[in-house]
Structures are given as structure tokens and as C-alpha cells.
Prior knowledge:
Elements: H1 8-94, E1 117-119, E2 125-127, H2 128-138, E3 154-155
Antiparallel strand pairs: 1-2, 1-3
This protein binds zinc ion (2 copies).
Amino acid sequence: MAGNNVDPQKIDQKLEDTRTEVEEMKSLLEKEKRNHVTLLNKLKMHDNSTQVTIQNLQKRLDELEKDQQLVLNQLLDEERSHIVATEELKTFLVNPADDITCSICLCSWESTGPHCVASLPCGHIFGMSCIQQCVLRTQLCPQCRAPVCYCDILCHPPS
Length: 159
Ligand SMILES: [Zn+2]
Ligand SMILES: [Zn+2]
């Protein structure tokens, strides 16, 4: 049984070797740990920058959506005012009461008499008595404020 002969010197040597090996492994592990932390930090930074990029994109998207909404609202407004104008025109065309009414006294003019139809050079039409009084006072067309002379008032008696 010669194999059982153990040299204590050799055991010490082996122990020392093992210790060194453990130390080396420890420092290697430390290094790995540090690398791991660095990698984690890098990942975190990358994640953050990705987050920022996503947030910026989201913001840009929101802005674009807002712009779109604004343009849409503008278009809707334009359409609405267009509809209102069309409606006003329709009302005017369907109900030309304004045309046969003196805008000064809001009564319709007569074919004869003091409130017969009278026109001004600007093309506006009133009852004769009303526009005569008005022009005497202001020398202006009450509808478009064009300057008028008393002698400019044209009477339109029935033919
Ligand atoms: Zn009148
Ligand atoms: Zn006028």
C-alpha cells in the first residue's frame, strides 16, 4: 500500500494552490460582477433614451393630431359660415320682402302718393317721403352712406 504514503509538504502545496485558485476565481467573479453592473447601466441608459424617443414621438403625434383637429375645426367653421350665408341668401331669394319695403319706415311703399317708390343714384330704393326727409337731414343714403343730393332722388310713379 505505497499510495497511502502522503507527504505533508505536498498537502501544504496543494492547499496553497487551491487557495490561489479560489482567490483568482474570486477576483474573476468580482470582475464579472462589475461588467454585469456596467452592462446593466448601459442597458438602463439605452432604455431611457428609447423611452425619451418614444415620448418625443408620442408628443409629435399628439401635436400632429392637434393640428389636424385645428384644420378640421377651421374647415367645419368655414362650412358652417358658408351654410349660414347660403341660408341667408335662400331666405332673401324666397322672401324678397326687403325689396318692397322701405328700409326707413319698414312699410311697403305705395304706387302713388307721398310714400311712392323713390330711388337714389346708388341704386337703393325707399319710400319717397322717408328718403326726402332723410336726405334733407344727412345728405347720405341711409343704406350705403353714399352722399346724395336732394335733387338726386328719383321718383318712380306708376306708368
Ligand atoms: Zn318709408
Ligand atoms: Zn345707397
